[in-house]
Amino acid sequence: MAERIDYTNIFKSPTLFAMKVLKVMPLRHQAQILEDESSRILIVSGRQAGKSTLLAIKALWTAFVKPSQDILIVAPTLRQSRVVYQRITDFILSSKEVKAHILKSNMEETRFDNGSYIRCLTASKTGETIRGFSATMLIFDEAGSIENDEVFSAVEPSLAVKGEQLILSGTPRGKRGYFYNNYATNDKTKRWQIYKFTSRVNPIITEDYLKEERANMTENRYLEEYEAEFIDEIGLFYPQELVAQCSEDYTYTLEREEGYKYYLGADISRAGSDETSIVIIAVPDDPIRKIRVVWAEGLKYSDITVSSREIIRKALAIGVEQVLVDAIGIGGGVYDIIQKELGSSKVTAVTLEGERRETAYTNLKIMLEKRRLILNENDTKMYHQFSSYSLKEKVGGGIRIVKSEEIHDDIVDGLVLALYGVESITKFTVFEGVNLDNDFFKNWAEQSAMQSVIKSPLNSPFYYPLDYLEK
């Protein structure tokens, strides 16, 4: 172990530390935050703006230069917290000067010979995993995605004891939660030193790149992701909060698990930039357990032979009960190819149009509200596509579900088709269409709340609003 030098006077500036020791030249906005010693810092950032790098430098400088520092990096999931932590690890490995003073380093903790340590932790749903830790510096990354305010209240006492620094950093995720509320009320409370910057602060990000990204997502999603704007979600049929509450951290797989039946939904691309989507869900034999999306992908080509081959390959790999194919347009040709290979009993041609399509979208929403469905939080494509659907008033009164033309909806449509197969088509003939003009849906548009439910026929996991069944 190298002899410990007092670095406090040599590297009083974290920016100088980054340049001299880590061989990194911070950008202007990064240097400003690196030098800020405020007790509470809130960073609202666009994607790819360098916030993970500046957080890593700030944490590493603090631990390396100052003795006995307890630094915690917290994010909604362990995978997210490891983004900043991995940057720290990379800096350590690239600097012999820093590496010489490391006592211990693994996937979750690094200890220094001056008594300091850096840990990365997951916030969990309620903050229980971090309750009880003490910290001189607490960094919440992706703070906008932490839904439960209890997570923050669980750790604030640790800072009160130490009296050091709390940093909230993230990309906006709607006008809600601790992250947004502290940002929005700071003009009155004056509790936070706030920094806000868009993705344009990154010199590598070009206007052409931003234009391309804007064309491939909803306007609201673009404003959040790249312009760092908090967007009011009123009007979204599938609000982010609703999708987030049903999301878990796992990996897609085609390995079959006992106790489940599998259904594949295929939404066939028609032209242009459309994608053919393949979505597979696992439906448990035990009704207490939840349905899980085990596979979702979009094929960037429209050739029906290639699309059919991929659908057949996935269906055989996991052994599906049913393949549900969108039969509109060229989907009919795909259906013909697949049913010849798998047999007519394994393949169903589905036509979801008009009220029947709105019924299917509504059933999906109810399943999400009742938390009967588990989504993969790592599937950003599906996450983005949920925001494509919104509720709009009709010219003559009433409400309808509309889809944005700015973003693909193929994956969500594939999910709707897969769920269609969970029970027989009887569901759509017995309860044909949803009356979106009744009072229930008018109230739903305002508060997105489901108060009363009843199970549908055939003991399916779909739920119907009592108001609808009584009409």
On the 0 to 100 scale, the average pLDDT is: 80
CATH architectural arrangement of the largest domain: 2-Layer Sandwich
Please give the domain count: 2
Shape: elongated
Q: What would CATH call the class of the largest domain?
A: Alpha Beta
Query: Could you say which structural class the secondary elements and strand pairing correspond to?
Result: alpha/beta
Question: Ranges with pLDDT <50 over ≥5 residues?
Answer: 424-471
> Numbering strands along the chain, what is their spatial order in the largest sheet?
3-4-5-2-6-7-1-8
Give me the count of strands.
19
Approximately how much helix is present in the residues?
25-40%
Q: How is this structure best described in words?
A:
- The protein is α/β, with parallel strands linked by helices.
- The chain folds into 2 domains: 14-225, P-loop containing nucleotide triphosphate hydrolases (Rossmann fold), CATH 3.40.50; 240-470, Nucleotidyltransferase, domain 5, CATH 3.30.420.
- The protein has 19 helices and 19 strands.
- The chain has helices at 14-20, 28-34, 51-65, 78-94, 96-99, 150-162, 177-184, 186-189, 207-215, 219-225, 240-245, 304-318, 331-342, 354-369, 380-386, 410-420, 426-430, 439-447, 466-470; strands spanning 40-45, 70-75, 102-105, 109-112, 117-122, 137-141, 165-170, 193-197, 247-248, 260-267, 276-284, 291-299, 322-326, 347-350, 373-376, 389-393, 399-403, 453-455, 463-465.
- The strands form 4 sheets. The protein has an 8-stranded mixed beta sheet with strand order 3-4-5-2-6-7-1-8, with helices on both faces.
- It is elongated, with a radius of gyration of 25 Å.
- The termini are far apart.
- The model is unreliable at 424-471 (pLDDT under 50).
